[in-house]
Amino acid sequence: MRSLPNILIAGTPGVGKTTTCNEILSLASQASPPLNLKHLSINDIVKERTCHTGYDEELQTLIVDEDKLMDEVEKEIADGEGEGGWVIDWHSTAGFAVRWVDLVVVLRCEETKVLFDRLSSRGYKDEKVQENMDAEIFGVVSEEAKEAWDEEGQVVELRSVAAEDIEENAERVVAWVRNWMKYHGQGSTG
Ligand SMILES: Nc1ncnc2c1ncn2[C@@H]1O[C@H](COP(=O)(O)OP(=O)(O)OP(=O)(O)O)[C@@H](O)[C@H]1O
Question: What chemistry does it catalyse, as a reaction equation (predicted)?
């Protein structure tokens, strides 16, 4: 049994995963007592441990080797077995074992114009912007998560459109962590 939950922050590129993870970690470190949450950036793992088979020029993205990537993720998560507290930052839930993750937060940006502007400002090609817009409109990440984590309350969708959503979402996640700790008899653990 972990003493802190593992949380996967998922969603279409540009919905605000990294920004939200940073805010969660910041709030957690300032909490009293502080919560020892740790950021697990899957983007960094893909690049640093070469969990890819090359670069797709068309879609301007690395072609992820999911098996290798999940081996690396499991090493990280297993290292913290009995400890937990990973805030995992990745666009997808594919490949993750359900037992590794206690809560999946899918960030959503329903305001398509806002997401379009965020993606375009990164210099993405039209095709890549469109692919990501379609994924967001059809709720692809959310559907995938709900298929795997079928226990009630394990997948939550949070709106990430305006700047104030970031803080509100981070506060909700930190509050959820506190509740999880109480429920699992970890109430006084920092
Ligand atoms: N809710 C929001 N309100 C205002 N700006 C936001 C919001 N969410 C994200 N942004 C802005 O959008 C940009 C992308 O955010 P961020 O890098 O956190 O997204 P991401 O989901 O982690 O993307 P990727 O999957 O490509 O890593 C940043 O400039 C961030 O400041």
Answer: AMP + ATP = 2 ADP; ATP + H2O = ADP + phosphate + H(+)
Å from CA of 99 to ligand 1 middle: 28
Bridge partners, 64 (sequence order): 52
Binding-site sequence positions for ATP: 14, 16-19, 122
Task: Give the chain's domains with CATH numbers.
Answer: 7-182 (3.40.50.300)
Model confidence pLDDT, tens digit, residues 53-71: 999 998 889 999 999 999 9
| Among the listed residues 122, 136, 128, 138, the one whose alpha carbon sits nearest the alpha carbon of residue 62 | 128
**Residues enclosing ligand 1, CB less than 6 A?**
11, 13-19, 43, 91, 118, 160-163, 165-166
Reference 120, options 109, 130, 111, 129; nearest CA is: 129
